[in-house]
Amino acid sequence: MSASNQPADATQVARGSGIATFMGLPHTRDISGVDAAIVGIPSDTGGTPGSRSAPRVLRDVSSLLRPVHAHHNIAPGAHLRVVDYGDVPVIPGALLDTYAEMERVLAPFHAAGVVPIGIGGDHSVTLGELRAAARHHGPVALLQFDAHTDTYDEYYGGKIRYNSGTMFRRGVEEGVIDAQHSMMVGLRGTVYSTHDYQDARDLGFSTRTMDDIVELGLPQIVQDIRACVADRPLFLTFDVDSLDPSVAPGTGTLECGGLTMREAQTILRKLAGLHVVGCDVVEVNPPLDPTRTTAAAGATLVFEFLALLALARRGNDVARQPN
Amino acid sequence: MSASNQPADATQVARGSGIATFMGLPHTRDISGVDAAIVGIPSDTGGTPGSRSAPRVLRDVSSLLRPVHAHHNIAPGAHLRVVDYGDVPVIPGALLDTYAEMERVLAPFHAAGVVPIGIGGDHSVTLGELRAAARHHGPVALLQFDAHTDTYDEYYGGKIRYNSGTMFRRGVEEGVIDAQHSMMVGLRGTVYSTHDYQDARDLGFSTRTMDDIVELGLPQIVQDIRACVADRPLFLTFDVDSLDPSVAPGTGTLECGGLTMREAQTILRKLAGLHVVGCDVVEVNPPLDPTRTTAAAGATLVFEFLALLALARRGNDVARQPN
Amino acid sequence: MSASNQPADATQVARGSGIATFMGLPHTRDISGVDAAIVGIPSDTGGTPGSRSAPRVLRDVSSLLRPVHAHHNIAPGAHLRVVDYGDVPVIPGALLDTYAEMERVLAPFHAAGVVPIGIGGDHSVTLGELRAAARHHGPVALLQFDAHTDTYDEYYGGKIRYNSGTMFRRGVEEGVIDAQHSMMVGLRGTVYSTHDYQDARDLGFSTRTMDDIVELGLPQIVQDIRACVADRPLFLTFDVDSLDPSVAPGTGTLECGGLTMREAQTILRKLAGLHVVGCDVVEVNPPLDPTRTTAAAGATLVFEFLALLALARRGNDVARQPN
Amino acid sequence: MSASNQPADATQVARGSGIATFMGLPHTRDISGVDAAIVGIPSDTGGTPGSRSAPRVLRDVSSLLRPVHAHHNIAPGAHLRVVDYGDVPVIPGALLDTYAEMERVLAPFHAAGVVPIGIGGDHSVTLGELRAAARHHGPVALLQFDAHTDTYDEYYGGKIRYNSGTMFRRGVEEGVIDAQHSMMVGLRGTVYSTHDYQDARDLGFSTRTMDDIVELGLPQIVQDIRACVADRPLFLTFDVDSLDPSVAPGTGTLECGGLTMREAQTILRKLAGLHVVGCDVVEVNPPLDPTRTTAAAGATLVFEFLALLALARRGNDVARQPN
Amino acid sequence: MSASNQPADATQVARGSGIATFMGLPHTRDISGVDAAIVGIPSDTGGTPGSRSAPRVLRDVSSLLRPVHAHHNIAPGAHLRVVDYGDVPVIPGALLDTYAEMERVLAPFHAAGVVPIGIGGDHSVTLGELRAAARHHGPVALLQFDAHTDTYDEYYGGKIRYNSGTMFRRGVEEGVIDAQHSMMVGLRGTVYSTHDYQDARDLGFSTRTMDDIVELGLPQIVQDIRACVADRPLFLTFDVDSLDPSVAPGTGTLECGGLTMREAQTILRKLAGLHVVGCDVVEVNPPLDPTRTTAAAGATLVFEFLALLALARRGNDVARQPN
Amino acid sequence: MSASNQPADATQVARGSGIATFMGLPHTRDISGVDAAIVGIPSDTGGTPGSRSAPRVLRDVSSLLRPVHAHHNIAPGAHLRVVDYGDVPVIPGALLDTYAEMERVLAPFHAAGVVPIGIGGDHSVTLGELRAAARHHGPVALLQFDAHTDTYDEYYGGKIRYNSGTMFRRGVEEGVIDAQHSMMVGLRGTVYSTHDYQDARDLGFSTRTMDDIVELGLPQIVQDIRACVADRPLFLTFDVDSLDPSVAPGTGTLECGGLTMREAQTILRKLAGLHVVGCDVVEVNPPLDPTRTTAAAGATLVFEFLALLALARRGNDVARQPN
Q1: pLDDT attached to residue A21
Q2: Of A76, A40, A70, nearest in space to A58 by CA
Q3: How far apart are CA B215 and CA F311, in angstroms?
Q4: Which position among C97, F133, F154, F238 has the lowest Cβ density within 10 Å, counted as fewest Cβ atoms?
Q5: Strands D141-145 and D234-239
Q6: What are phi and psi of A156, to 5 degrees?
């Protein structure tokens, strides 16, 4: 593993200098020998406009991140070969074509054992990522941090069947989501009907609303997630609207009363060992984020993902060590 | 109850399109047969400048709200006839004249059994709303979410006796507030004298400071509110500066250490059954709210009010149902 | 013509109060007896995201406008019956469906002699407006204020043929634009090829670049426009990126060195008498417009259109007067 | 004249450090021996909310100014004793009381030969300044840079007779403005009636609209101003909405097509020798000025005033020199 | 103690009017007889650019503060003579020279028993404050609220040894910090190496990470602080990045998952009786703080410091009272 | 010349997608065979804080640029091999060390005939660029677009001799600037002394103030520049504060009354044929540029430079063509 795969270190190179890749990681399209790759998906055709500029902003803001995760006390770069792949080609105005590009680009990642870490883009992009994952892994478990179920059937009198409100119903229908091992975390606020959550559960998803989280407590939620996901190949999708608007003001569909970052991090940090085959952070919307705190939260979540992957790998490294 | 009284549904009509009424409700000056009406009060003559533009911004932001309240699992529009009345005429620079307009416009609401849901404006507008309510109901209980007591006597050497710092003292003096059944929730921070809170209590108000809330816990606070208000006609006024600045940055008199939205919503959601005859959300200040999170919080609070009203009505509906 | 068709007067009603219609005009879907109607088209599927929120923002900002145009010394409301129709239904993510809605809604305007004044949305919406106009008028002359030709053929390897860079080539192909009587004004900056402007001319359009404007002077430009358009039914489309970024910072494709508002107004004010059958202002992008000056420019341009229509009508009124 | 009356020099003291007085001038209430004094008037009760915070922001931004005016090549501080007096006490919500305070505070300035340089506040404050000036000088000539006449009679059905749209009619009625020697410069845009400008002229004011300025040219405008004002005691009031929104986005009533700063400065720089007894810059509205360019323009205008005063004084200094 | 040392009272003088000193306190360089003095340190040469403008912004925002601390029910101004000293001269681009100025200016404060309350500036300024304190008190205990240790050794290949990441290592080396009685509170997030926190402990510091705070609870943290600091002369430094980005978005090195203001205030309010000889609030970065909530938090923290000092003094006052 | 050296084309790849290099040019440290290279210099130690983030923002915003310059009708990429080199290593807080790095990195560019196009950073960085150029070319002519001379001698009592106000005096002293062939364009506003401009002239510089530009006209200014520079190796430095604040609000030292972009572009477009050996755009300050128009102007100026270089090369290409 070459030193060039290490993230930038602001004690050596001035923070925020240089071409903006995620954490200063090397930008390459060559994923051979790579463990995980940052992949931008600058598409907002399926949702609130603005999130298409998130990949660049997240890369820029990621300069705030230092190489080591203090809670786990682990340097992801010491255990993982990580690169910044750049962006998937997107076709503004043509979501299905963008899905096809995503599938074309990302399927080989899974075949090669590379975990793609998507940075959206609106949440509709996750369906493209799931399709790519399912090509290799079959239907994957979905752990969805979200204020909303995103399992509606259609919009605008049926004219739109693929957007950021429907893609997980499509994912179940297409057989790329294994709903029985999938859970939604953070649901709350206002919904379209009195049976929205039940609709999601009817598709097979488990749900944990904010009310559930407050009532049950974080340790129980973590336990529920682990029980639900079990050992299935897991796609972890984090819509930043699961966070409270105070934490993530810069997103398209604010719902009051969401997760604090401390809560989100507490949950994520307990998920080591799950079989993560892909993950993403979506719905950061830079034009709505003048404080850039939403982008900072998004970049931090990506780092939490990297730490989880590194912990898994460190376990393996230890196991593989000669004695 | 006609379908046209339903709020807009973003699965049918693109979110944020159309003339901006609150939640896309019909705009009409005809309140016959109406249960509740959104009423803008774009006056900031009595307080920090800027809140006069809140009614329009709250209407715009309310497009984020979907028709059903997930916690209560109730669609307010299924139980209430709600309209957007538009704004009360205000006279910038002449608060007393604005009060007269408010009384003229809103008194008939109470006579007709319509609950006006005011969207301010600075907090001084609440006195006008209280005068209108008291014409029909007599002195009303006041449940005041606020960082400050707003019961000062006068400002600037006595030159100003009506503004956003004095109106609740005036309300007691005028006999429109029933202080013995009124409570202030969320007091904290910096005050003008060591007896500010005692002054409020001397007027008859109960007080629950943020220190009280932390010490006693939310369930006790809810119980205290219900005991204090009892079955009196209640005006519920929510100054967004009761919220923490992280939640509601866009308001004129920030006080650190306030309520989270989760806390505010938890309290409000336990108030079903109180006899609410009017309510308002005040002090959203759009020029100070670049992230629009304060406006989102304000619109959400209005929706919490609607849900409370709907719960009460649903109870009645059930009671009235033939068997 | 009833008084209710008059715009709001801020000496009577506080500026910025009330439901936000354009200039406080009555909101109605009934266009019988109407001369001109403001029509929002909140679609940005075909262009830079963000302009979908322009209609609401333009309506709000239009409160700055007073009823009389000082240069022409004419009150449009004294000569025209104008209403705010609200918005055309749009289908985010499905531009062709949105076009169909536009055609369905707007064609009757032209049949009824009502001039629709569109407020976009990204520039791709103009094709829908042109289709509606051409149904009644046949191919229309186009006077296009724009930094760019928007006559490209396709994007992204042919996957996208309808967006804000191609719609005027489509318009010629579809026979809704009479290119021989059409002119582009304000072209400049950076282009995709050395023959972009020639391509537009090859389609039949006349072009006046910023270089031309500086060299020839505004009076000559006006003369050229009038000569080109002649007496054909004219659609006037104003992309705010024809303005300099100092004037209109809040738009998606800034091009330095554009028109000042004084220049744009000087040209527009000399166009009285042209046979305007439709017009629009597009590409105001509120999330990119923190100063709201772009929205103010957009609303002012709409008022310039109203003044042009009123001048024409006043002429007719005079002509029709008995003697 | 002590060195302590000199503005701050950023080659010696870091720009933007220290308590924010205008240009770092000494803050004192003692105006004895002073030639000119900066006086803040943080009142916006009579106009668009927000301008009350302008005095502090203008003081802060004035750190950009260096001690010498390059065009005139004069250091105002070398010829004038200038101080920052601080603010006039204002009574938010009570404009007439604020006027009384202004008159009480500022009348002694005129008696003592001190030129007060007001920094508003909304434009209504100028009436208070004029009253103070007229106490000593009698009716003063007014040179008014403004997009609007501000000579309306009343607002809101007569309920408001003093605000930022009426104060110059009041000033004529009260005999504090000598309208025959007064001129409005920069009128344009939208007005309330077809006789607004004529109404102003009927009061005695001369008017130069933006159309006039473009047609006649700046040299003629300067000549007209000088002819109109002649040798009368002059109050120079600069409403920043006379500037184009591109130059001054942060003001309450944007009117497109206004003066550039180069034009405004060109006019002002030719006014040396007029008998300026007071001046102000008003309607800078910081909450609407995220780029702070409006504040920078406002501070620069104050510096232009100081240069004019210094030029007059230098002339006198030369004349008084012994030979 | 003269009345003139009282902070401004917004019931008497309009909030936000007048020259901006901290809370409207008198600005003077004369510290004789003074108990505590606000001292701006507008330097950001050692850290993220932008914090140099914090002192002015904090002074402006401090107008929100009222004279009495509601939790302690104490008016600092009734027990302390407090002034606003203005700013220490800083040398942009020359941190060591700025340190020399700080030491020169502030050492006499300590000799005179005046507690300087610094408002930075980036965190590197604290070393200058510590040097000044140590001249009189010898090595001082440091209570450091911070997301980061700031005890790195050097940056950029050794070219920089003094900046906002190294100054506390320098402070120990120089003997101005008594690390054995010093504690860091709020550490979290991302670090440069797996031994960053251990490195700080090796220097003698105690550490309490956010993980510790959550696990141990605030009462234990308070007890630990008091035990660690004991009766040593204490410098209390508050880097606002110890707060969560939702609370303090306007700072240079955001770390998710930090303290809420309620938590920070709870800790600070329990520290009465510690021997505070100096304190500061640093890293407020106004250009990154469009909501101004970070500035409001910073000003509030200064007020918490004043309350602590007043409590100590009140205790002494009581003790000294004749009986 | 490979296709990979072409800038990105937004008709093929969605605008704003991909790793942000300038115009999507390839990022490489290999300058062999390269004609011009974009080089970021993210240093603001010598000036107003904030400009250090300009290189990344300019790269991001440059996505707005299309491959062909419409005025010259030339595609720079068709005549030049251009790359994005990334950034020079900078040492925040140590300007002289940063200069050394710049000289080390950039001198080989000149030796290899590569024109470095610097994107600052504050204006002090230009001295480092000039030192590098002079190593190969000897003293170079300087064409300086600037509101200020930047030829002061020292700041803060001599403690600072290298910053953004002194570097061109240093450049003359060091023999890297050939002042006799150098010109300053755009001087105006406020200055530190009555002899600032004369001081610059005494060093050998020619000056053209804004007053000169208005009086002489752009064609004469162009002629003067060409006469002054003649055939010397030229460094072209563009401080965006030479532009009017309406055009470039996001810079540290606003001076009203500056160049419009149309004027700046008119001048630059007439400079083809000058022997440009280096150039830069400096003082774009993103935290002060919420509209991003300053960044757009900066990116456009870089494109104007590229067009100038391409024109020169095309001339050569033509000359070299076989016949």
Answers
A1: 98
A2: A40
A3: 75
A4: F154
A5: parallel
A6: 55, 55
- At residue D88's C-alpha, the angle toward residues D85 and D89, to 5°, is 135
Nearest residue of chain E to residue D94 (CA atoms): E14
CB distance A159–C50 less than 8 Å? no
Name the β-bridge partners of F159: none
Within 10 Å of residue D3's Cβ, how many Cβ atoms? 6
Whether CATH 3.40.800.10 fits A3-307: yes
Question: Which CA distances in Å does D141 have to D116, D138, D265?
Answer: 16, 10, 20
Q: What does the block give as tokens for A21?
A: 């890749």
- Closest CB from F156, F190, F209 relative to D303: F190
pTM: 0.97
- The token duo for A117 is 């870490």
Confidence of residue C2 (pLDDT cuts 50, 70, 90): very low
pLDDT tens string D290-307: 999 999 999 999 999 999
Rounded distance between C-alpha atoms, residue F91 and residue F106, angstroms: 16
Cα–Cα distance, C61 to C248 (Å, whole number): 14
Residues in chain C within 8 Å Cβ distance of A45:
45, 93
- Neighboring chain F residues of C246 at a CB cutoff of 8 Å: 244, 246-247, 260-261, 293
CATH of domain F25-317: 3.40.800.10
Within 8 A of F159 by CB-CB distance, chain E residues are 91, 94, 97
CB contact (8 A) between residue E254 and residue A65: no
Q: Å from D252 to nearest chain C CA?
A: 9
Residue C37 CA to residue C47 CA, distance in Å, equals: 25
Q: Which residues contact A46 (CB under 8 A, 6 or more apart)?
A: A95, A122, A123, A124, A125, A162, A163, A164, A167, C93
Q: Which CATH architecture has domain C36-316?
A: 3-Layer(aba) Sandwich (3.40)
A70, A260, A290 ranked by CB distance to E190: nearest: A70
Superfamily designation of domain E30-318 = Ureohydrolase domain (3.40.800.10)
Output phi, psi for D162, to 5 deg.
Answer: -125, 105
| Closest Cβ–Cβ partner in B20, B89, B290 for C20 | B20
Among the partner-chain residues F93, F159, F288, the one whose CB lies closest to the CB of E160 is: F93
Residues 57-116 of D with CB under 8 A from E: 59-60, 84, 86-87, 89-92
d(CA C65, CA C81): 17
Which residue stretches of chain E have pLDDT < 50? 1-3, 323
Neighbour count for residue B230 (Cβ, 10 Å)? 12
Residue C160: list chain A partners with CB under 8 A: 91-94
Q: Which architecture, in CATH terms, is B3-317?
A: 3-Layer(aba) Sandwich (3.40)
Q: B285, B304, B305: which is closest to B240 by C-alpha?
A: B285
As a whole number of angstroms, the distance between CA D168 and CA D121 comes to 16
Contact assignment for D291 to F249 by CB distance below 8 Å: yes
- DSSP run (H or E) holding F209: strand F206-209
Q: Residues of A with CB below 8 A from C290's CB?
A: 290
- Asked if residue D121 has a cis previous peptide bond (ω within 30° of 0), the answer is yes
Write out the two tokens for C175.
């026979």
- For residue C263, pLDDT over 80 is answered with yes
Asked if A42 and F92 come within 8 Å (Cβ–Cβ), the reply is: no
pLDDT band per the 50, 70, 90 thresholds, residue B219: very high
Is residue C147 less than 8 Å (CB to CB) from chain D? no
